[in-house]
Amino acid sequence: MKSDNAIWNGTSIFVGIIVAIAAFVRGALLLPLLLVACSIWELYVLHHLRSSLPAVPKKKAKAPRRTKFVVPDIEDEPLSDILLLHVNQRVTAALRTADSNITWEWATKDPLAIVKEGGRCLIRVHGLDGFESAEVVLDKQAHLRCELINTVPLRPNPTADTPEKPRIPAETPPLPDPRIWYETEGRATLEGIVADLSSRGHHSMTVQEDGHIQLTDGSTSVLPELHGFPPVGCWEKLKQVFAGDGLAAEETSGKLVLSW
After folding, report:
1. What DSSP line would sit under 7-19, residue for residue?
2. Half-sphere exposure of 175 (CA within 13 A, CB side)
3. Dihedral sign (CA 81, 90, 218, 249)
4. Gap between the Cα atoms of 192 and 205, Å rounded
5. What's the CA gap between 206 and 216, in Å, rounded?
């Protein structure tokens, strides 16, 4: 109603203006002034008509659809290696509560399956009197429990006191450049081995002449072989190469002991 009254009042004023222009203006100004007056009146009417219309409710913005979370596959080699090293560190920390010098190794061929699916698995423990193994329990909520197991042998091992047979040295091949061997294939293999052993509490390893690796605690872990390992005659230069990369090397009884 208020809008209608405003329009009627505006119409009365508009008519009065038109009459005044027609009465007092002559010549070329008459038509432009009439057009201006009509335009102003139209804008006035449109303004009041628009304000009288009911407000249109705004549409609510649609909430963004949540995308389904997809767990990444841990079988990709870089991620699986990092995940296994992380679990190794947690097992080492749990064992170190019993003794600070404990080292250990997985007793299963595929420890990543336990890490991924959860379950129970035995590990071999070294450096703790009275205990040779432990049970690791890992569930799918990443809870980890480690319990030491005391095993008693039923009979003594008849080969325990058997002296090690002396190794027959092979013919000495031409001496290669140890730096070339280290840069082409030795560095990559050693970095993976050191990372794995460090995560399980080791600080050294022994490399034989043929490139096979042994651990000082008697662990039977299957470790990669250093193919093309330089012969004994190159070990002095090889120790310098290792020292430049942060590895201390010491020759003992025809073997090279690496520590980090």
Report:
1. HHHHHHHHHHHHH
2. 8
3. positive
4. 13
5. 7
> Cβ(200)–Cβ(193) under 8 Å?
no
* pTM, two decimal places: 0.49
At 58-111, the pLDDT tens digits run 666 666 666 665 545 555 557 778 888 888 899 999 888 888 888 989 888 888
The residues, any chain, with a CB within 8 Å of residue 136's CB and separated by 6 or more, are 91, 114, 120, 121, 122, 123, 144, 145, 146
d(CA 11, CA 21): 15
Q: In what order do the strands lie in the sheet with 103-106?
A: 103-106, 119-126, 133-138, 144-149
* Cα Rg, the chain, nearest whole Å: 44
The whole-number average pLDDT for the span 193-202 is 87
Token readout for 111 is: 């420890």
CB-based contact 217:103 (threshold 8 Å)? yes
Q: What are phi and psi of 221, to 5 degrees?
A: -60, 140
